[in-house]
């Protein structure tokens, strides 16, 4: 078996930044040289530039007990102070921190002074409930300002937050509360989603009840409830407190105490290969440094004039780093939106960009492809001229979607930063620098200054330019995970065992280096297919399918095949206009041929199934494992992490 992932697609378009953009850019090419000259000194500089330390650090990195890193570890800081008080002290109290818009259209405008005061009150309230350094607080909220306020209040006390995405069920919430041993849960009665109130408090009540009869006690002493949906809720008067009773009553005076740089900041759960959620642990100093550094340099942030919008929910790492910590540490003005993109109408996001003059827009390929499906005439009804930079995260962005994003949303001039990173990396690792890099549609391109990445074969040898393999991180980085909560063995096994000899972190992703040395992400290694001894990436074949005019979205998997080992099986969503005029059989034949022409006969799908939807997690990632079950005619596996659990029965029926 060949150890490399074969590369088949080629892309030659390049888009350098305009001279005007480059002239004003925050990040210049010199950063690469500085980082290369002395990586640790470089990170020391970033730490002093971006963060205010109560007690300065004298040591940048302690890597004496790998894989457990310590960054800036004799320094002390308060993360919330860095995101709030220091801006007010610097005379920026009147700057808007958050423009918030609810799904029904209600608005809030919160300045740095107001946000600081609200966080101080909330911190006092939590302290009054006995929350202090090291205690865990679960946050289960919709996208309302109280989500950010809660995170910062917990951070201010040196306690640890565990934000659980509001779309998760009572069972998922319970397992996360139990694993972390949370003392307090902050939730809301409900939040607006798709035009109606979606209740949250009942899930908390269920999670904390002994609903499965296990008799297991939970650790939660209090539940704080924000009134948002106005829906009726059950009340446990010994345990539950309304936010509007306890926060305004708390004092607005609160001095931020300094905590060590390695004080834990948050736990964020990701799904692992086993059912048990994996609590990724991040600490304070290093995380904040890299969050602020990347937010400023990758997004070319000019805090005095930009309006930044990251569309991620606070329940994902993207919401942690690029809604809460990065933008607020940098004193940015940002937009936060409660609802879904298509409510109450398909142009809602573009309407918001026009209304608030959003200049930096960061979203996911799955959203971009959904907008492509409904058509460019919708965004074209709005004035998007305020946009000067676009970002993408979460999945490989196929060149077709990249070009659409650039043309339709970016007026063919805003640079696109395709940012590769993970919950585990804490902050962006690979991305163009928008004023420096000539971007290539579909490539995340270059490790950021200070970050060391390589692509290896199974045996641990570098594959070199022109080849594909496994993405590794070869040097520790400030925002790296410090462990898996309560499970150091799982931390070592999952991330450090594969290339233990070299001491490299294995990310689980496939990637290839093109002839210029630029990185192309190829999807999760678990999803790589092996056809007649060739390792093929899902991302490339999906890109080819989406490049066909009939196709809105595609997912491919490898299904076992007697002759070729595995065969490529494609699941394709066809644009409505095409469905009306073509037979599914005709389309399937056309698409098989098309992929054969675009990539080569080896990649031609054995089967093409036309489906109405694809199985996705709540953060929009396609769950290929389930499609593999369908392709191989097995019973479909665990669907509990799907956004819509009914999708798989529909797909199975369509395939039959
Ligand atoms: C994938 C999200 C290609 C990748 C920040 C990674 C990407 C996983 C990109 C982490 C990108 C993220 N190009 N693939 N620009 N960004 N991924 O933990 O497979 O939700 O390992 O963090 O998403 O997902 P997570």
Protein architecture, described:
The structure is a single chain. With 656 residues, this protein is α/β, with parallel strands linked by helices. It has a domain at 528-655: ANL, C-terminal domain (GMP Synthetase, Chain A, domain 3), CATH 3.30.300.30. Helices cover 32% and strands 22% of the residues. The chain is built from 21 helices and 30 strands. The strands form 8 sheets. The chain has an 8-stranded mixed β-sheet, with helices on both faces. Strand 26 (529-531) and strand 27 (534-536) form a beta hairpin. The two termini are 33 Å apart. 52% of the residues are buried. The mean pLDDT is 94. Bound molecules: 5'-O-[(S)-ethoxy(hydroxy)phosphoryl]adenosine (WTA). The site of 5'-O-[(S)-ethoxy(hydroxy)phosphoryl]adenosine (WTA) has 22 residues, from helix 12, strand 24 and strand 25.
Strand content: 15-25%
The tally of helices reads: 21
Looking at the overall shape, the CATH architecture of the domain at 528-655 is 2-Layer Sandwich
State the shape: globular
Strands of the largest sheet, in order across it? 12-11-8-6-7-14-15-23
Q: Would you tell me which CATH topology of the domain at 528-655 applies?
A: GMP Synthetase, Chain A, domain 3
Biggest sheet, in brief? 8 strands, mixed
Radius of gyration: 24 Å
CATH superfamily of the domain at 528-655: ANL, C-terminal domain
The molecules bound to the chains, other than polymers, are: 5'-O-[(S)-ethoxy(hydroxy)phosphoryl]adenosine
Text of the CATH class of the domain at 528-655: Alpha Beta
């Amino acid at each position: 078996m060949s150890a490399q992932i074969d590369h088949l697609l080629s892309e030659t378009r390049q888009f350098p930044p305009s001279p005007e953009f480059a002239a004003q850019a925050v990040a210049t090419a010199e950063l690469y040289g500085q980082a290369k000259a002395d990586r640790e000194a470089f990170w020391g500089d970033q730490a002093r530039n971006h963060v205010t330390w109560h007690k300065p650090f004298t040591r940048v990195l302690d890597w004496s007990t790998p894989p457990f890193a310590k960054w800036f570890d004799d320094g002390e800081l308060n993360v919330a102070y860095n995101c709030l008080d220091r801006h007010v002290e610097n005379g920026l109290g009147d700057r808007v921190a958050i423009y918030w818009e609810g799904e029904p259209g209600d608005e809030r405008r919160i300045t740095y002074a107001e946000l600081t005061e609200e966080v101080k009150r909330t911190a006092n309230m939590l302290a009054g409930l006995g929350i202090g350094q090291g205690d865990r607080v679960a946050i289960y909220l919709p996208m309302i300002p109280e989500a950010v306020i809660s995170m910062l209040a917990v951070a201010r006390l040196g306690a640890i937050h565990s934000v659980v995405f509001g779309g998760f069920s009572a069972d998922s919430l319970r397992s996360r509360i139990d694993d972390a041993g949370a003392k307090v849960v902050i939730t809301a009665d409900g939040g607006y989603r798709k035009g109606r109130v979606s209740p949250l408090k009942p899930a908390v009540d269920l999670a904390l009840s002994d609903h499965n009869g296990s008799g297991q006690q939970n650790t939660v002493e209090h539940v704080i409830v924000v009134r948002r949906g106005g829906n009726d809720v059950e009340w446990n008067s010994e345990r539950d407190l309304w936010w509007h009773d306890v926060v305004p009553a708390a004092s607005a005076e609160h001095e931020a105490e300094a905590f060590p740089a390695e004080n834990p900041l948050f736990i964020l759960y990701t799904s692992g290969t086993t059912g048990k959620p994996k609590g990724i642990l991040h600490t304070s100093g290093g995380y904040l440094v890299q969050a602020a550094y990347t937010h400023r340099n990758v997004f070319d942030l000019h805090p005095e004039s930009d309006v930044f919008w990251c569309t991620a929910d606070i329940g994902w790492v993207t919401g942690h780093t690029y809604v809460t910590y990065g933008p607020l540490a940098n004193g940015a003005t940002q937009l936060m939106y409660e609802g879904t993109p298509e409510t109450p109408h398909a142009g809602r996001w573009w309407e918001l960009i026009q209304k608030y003059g959003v200049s930096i827009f960061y979203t996911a390929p799955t959203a971009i492809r959904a907008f492509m499906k409904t058509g460019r005439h919708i965004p074209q009804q709005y004035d998007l001229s305020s946009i000067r930079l676009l970002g993408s995260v979460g999945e490989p962005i196929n060149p077709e979607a990249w070009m659409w994003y650039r043309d339709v949303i970016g007026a063919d001039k805003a640079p696109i930063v395709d940012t590769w990173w993970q919950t585990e990396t804490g902050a962006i690792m690979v991305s163009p620098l928008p004023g420096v890099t000539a971007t290539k549609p579909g490539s995340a391109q270059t490790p950021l200054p200070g970050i060391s990445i390589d692509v290896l074969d199974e045996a641990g040898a570098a594959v070199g330019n022109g080849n594909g393999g496994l993405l590794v991180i070869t040097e520790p980085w400030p925002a790296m995970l410090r462990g898996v909560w309560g499970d150091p063995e799982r931390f070592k096994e999952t991330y450090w065992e594969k290339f233990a000899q070299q001491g490299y972190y294995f990310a689980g992703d496939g990637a290839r280096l093109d002839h210029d040395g630029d990185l192309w992400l190829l999807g999760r290694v678990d999803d790589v297919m092996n056809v007649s001894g060739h390792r093929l990436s899902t991302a490339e074949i999906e890109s080819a399918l989406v490049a066909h005019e009939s196709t809105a979205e595609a997912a491919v998997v490898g299904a076992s095949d007697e002759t070729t080992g595995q065969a490529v099986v494609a699941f394709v969503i066809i644009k409505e206009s095409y469905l009306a005029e073509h037979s599914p059989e005709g389309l399937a034949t056309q698409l098989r041929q098309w992929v054969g022409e675009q990539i080569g006969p080896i990649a031609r799908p054995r089967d093409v199934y036309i489906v109405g939807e694809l199985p996705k997690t709540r953060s929009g990632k396609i769950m290929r494992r389930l499609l593999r079950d369908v392709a191989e005619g097995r019973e479909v596996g665990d669907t509990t992490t799907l956004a819509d659990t009914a999708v798989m029965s529909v797909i199975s029926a369509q395939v039959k």
